[in-house]
Amino acid sequence: MNEYHSSANDAFSPSQERDRSGSMSLGNIPVSPHGPPSDHGGAAVDDITNKEQSPDVGTTSPTQTSGLSGANSEQLKQVSDVLSSEIGIVTLLNRLKQSIASAKEFALFLKKRSSLEEDHANGIRKLTRTTQEVMRRPDHRQGTFGSAYEAMASTHERMAENGIEFAKELHQMHDELMELAGVAERSRKSWKQNGLSAENKVAEMEQTMRKSKAKYDSLAEDYERVKTGESRQSGKMFGLKGHKSAQQHEGELLKKVQAADSTYHGHVQALQAEKAQLVSTTRPEAIRALQDSIKEIDAGISLQMQKFASFNERLLLSNGLSVSPIQGPGAQASSSQRSLRQAASSIDNEKDLNDYVTAQHRSVPPNSGEIKYERNPALNPPGSSGQHNPGGPVQQPAAIVQSPVSQTPPQGGFSGPQPLGPGSRTSTLGLGPITGITGGDSSFPPTDDPRPFSQPHNRSFSQGNMPVQQGAPAQQFPGRGSNQQAAGQRYGNGGSISSSGPPQLGALPFQPSGSPPQQPGPAQAPHEHSGSGVNLGQGPPGATRSPPPYGASSHPPPGPGPGPSGPSKPVFGLPLSRLYERDGLAVPMVVYQCIQAVDMYGLNVEGIYRQSGSMAHIQKLKNMFDTESSNPALDFRNPENFYHDVNSVTGLLKQFFRDLPDPLLTLEYHDSFIAAAKQEDDTLRRDSLHAIINSLPDPNYATLRALTLHLWRVMDNSHNNRMNCHNLAVIFGPTLMGTDPSTAIADAGWQIKAIDTILQNTLQIFDED
Q1: Which of 25, 322, 613, 686 gives a 20 to 30 Å CA spacing to 426?
Q2: Which segments of the protein form a coiled coil according to its record (predicted)?
Q3: 3-state secondary structure string, 179-221?
Q4: In 3-state terms, what secondary structure has residue 666?
Q5: Of 719, 727, 720, 750, the residue nearest 737 (C-alpha)
Q6: Structure confidence by residue, pLDDT tens digits, 118-131
Q7: What's the pTM?
Q8: Inter-residue contact 263 to 214 (CB < 8 Å)
Q9: Do residues 603 and 720 touch, judged by C-beta distance below 8 A?
């Protein structure tokens, strides 16, 4: 008890005043919650001091309630009457129970408030440090804005420190209150057992005494009636063994009355002694102990309440001083002591701009002088080279040198997919621009370098955790400057493949073995003028031959320009090998356009590939691909072309794979895929599926690779679209592997397992180049 008294007097001495002149950050100065004591808190502390001087509760002296300041004499008398009665212990037990419950609830509040403050402070600190790191990068503004931003971040850092210290103090207060409540609860249980047992014993003895008195009074009344002769007529009621005389009956009653009197007298004496012991010793001790427990826990709660108020004041004051420090008159505010308003006002946008531009002065290129026209001597007539006057009028040559038509990129239409190879073991299947798409006016200009949908790719083989690639030198197709040659050097391995290697794409049965007929035209000019020495379609029969680029069929594409659309070319329902043989596209155009649309507009759409699009839109788009594949309206970079409904695009893509006569993963390898999916070891299952995928026909491999890498990008945005690996596998399992009515139910789970494994190991099976 004395420690609460001393701590309360030390912590809340009215003679001390709070010093608010300097920074009061909780992290820099010791916590000493000075402040004026509250009215109730002072009374609670006085109770603790005065309790040691109070006499026994059993007396009726008013000094026993001297701790109740401000109470009148009538109230003091009522308090004394209650505490000295038999309900005094029960009353104080109930009051102590209330104090314990209040202490626990206040402690729970402090714990939750501490947790909230700690989370808030840690969040501010993390946010501050993150934004400081980002703002210090060279791609953000510096100068006066950077300094002001640093000052703002430092202010928030100090506020976070204040919050953390505040949370620690609240947590400590919670622990102290819970400990205080535990002590009070143990004391209450002890005195409830000891004090109430004495009270109950006295009550039981009093009840026994009353019963003996009632019996004694009844026998005395009967004896009185026998003496007066009132009960002679009913004498037959006495003496069950025979008739007794009145004298005998009177003698027996006298003996009974004397015995009852002796018993009653003994009960009264025992009750008097026990009650005297209770009133003089047991009850006052219990009352004092319960009063001490009540005053102790009440004083502790009051103290913690005052500390809580003081800590709140200090937190707000410290945050206020962090935002706007108190500065003396005429003091110069340093960068670390500036207020938040001063830091924001110090931003000079004009100075920051000029400083940045000035810093780039050293990068200004030297002046190259005046630009002059210099005529090449080769254009001068023979013998007139020395007669040319640079300052005279320019004479046009007699003949105009025309550049090859093929050097001009075609206008109109839309650009197709970039090179995407199915990746044979020895050859790279290039995927060049889409040809055959003509038309005078198109709302989309051609794009020379669209999004890198994919690049030439060699099939790799999994060996443990290290993918090993077998590759062959990639064919280099000139055109569009030297970038084509650089790309060929980048993706070529420069190795040679023996004749015993796997078949190449050029050796597939659906690809013409001879050289394609060369038709004269501007589109052939780049190959005629190529310096790479590659002669497409020619060479020894056993030589490695790369297939035509994506979009390049066996015939040169027609030149750009308006003209009637070609005949109907069905796309849906044809095998991939037939589409490649006809169009020269390893990845069908409908697959490329659908993937492109989803990549641009559908990666963040919730439920992509799970939501169903409009069947009317899907049917219209399907008919357009079957009849007007060269229509510029099939460029899905414009969302108007698919009715702003990306779910219709996904439905069209799934419809294309469902309509394939032979599924994308082929019926030939269906049982192999199912057997590989049943492997329990993850690595063995992945490597088995990888080996089967490498055995797929080249158009199937290229299309599977493009689709799998696209689904990997969909999975990468699963936090937005809610489509994880398993969800996509459920959708594309039967779609890519086909369904056999006889085994559809048995194979459904293994189909999902196979596609799930392929998607999980996308970057191990396919190179993302």
Answers
A1: 686
A2: none
A3: HHHHHHHHHHHHHHHHHHHHHHHHHHHHHHHHHHHHHHHHHHH
A4: coil
A5: 750
A6: 999 999 999 999 99
A7: 0.38
A8: no
A9: yes
